[in-house]
Design a protein that fits this description.
By secondary structure, this protein is α+β, with helices and mostly antiparallel strands. The protein has one domain: 60s Ribosomal Protein L30, Chain: A (2-Layer Sandwich), CATH 3.30.1330.110. The chain is 19% helix and 30% strand. Strands 1, 2, 3, 4, 5, 6 and 7 form a seven-stranded mixed sheet that branches. The longest helix has 22 residues.
């Protein structure tokens, strides 16, 4: 049993990854500002490891506090930049169910993050899987206010070198300050 240190959760570790892309893959400099991608993650003890739990609603409700903390950490990492796209993911340790991670990624968790970026209208792309420490995951990104904005379809690959342990879940949220550099596939443009 882990001592709870964040509401109903035991968080072992927080993660912050920042990546700035100044030129595209062929070396052409950015068409405007560089793309900044930020990933915030938390390694959380999975209180349901090794168990089938029929009702996960309590954890869904408690995830709101996590959303507020992710939003606070994002504002600190962003500085004056603005979020244009986002995505979320979970990595569940081998003793847990994928459903345990998804219980922490619902709208209850995401709405405080939306509020922290000044609102967002579009669904948040999401992914997840079970894995061992150091497992890589690609977090999908899409425009925060509009669907089908091709210029903002992107991913960021992340690893958490020492997580998730078998009895942990890593929850991660990714953000980008603009669409891909030199996107040229047409489609709807963001407003």
């Amino acid at each position: 049993m882990r001592t709870k240190n964040f509401g109903e959760f035991h968080i072992r570790k927080w993660y912050l990854q920042i990546e700035d892309t100044l030129a595209n893959e062929t070396g052409v400099l950015a068409d405007g500002e560089p793309v900044r991608k930020i990933v915030i993650g938390a390694a959380i003890h999975n209180a349901f490891s090794g168990q089938f739990v029929r009702d996960l609603n309590g954890w869904v409700r408690e995830s709101e506090a996590l959303g507020h903390e992710f939003g606070k950490r994002l504002r600190n990492a962003l500085g004056n930049a603005r979020v244009a796209s986002y995505g979320k993911a979970c990595l569940v340790g081998s003793a847990g169910e994928y459903e345990h991670g998804n219980a922490l990624l619902t709208t209850t968790f995401a709405d405080p993050i939306r509020a922290s970026i000044g609102g967002a209208k579009a669904w948040i792309p999401s992914t997840g899987k079970r894995g061992a420490p150091g497992t890589s995951i690609d977090i999908p990104l899409a425009h925060k206010d509009e669907l089908y904005v091709r210029s903002h379809y992107d991913t960021i690959s992340v690893t958490f070198p020492d997580a998730p342990n078998a009895d942990e879940i890593v929850i991660a949220f990714a953000f980008a300050t603009r669409g891909r550099l030199h996107s040229r596939l047409g489609g709807p443009q963001p407003h």
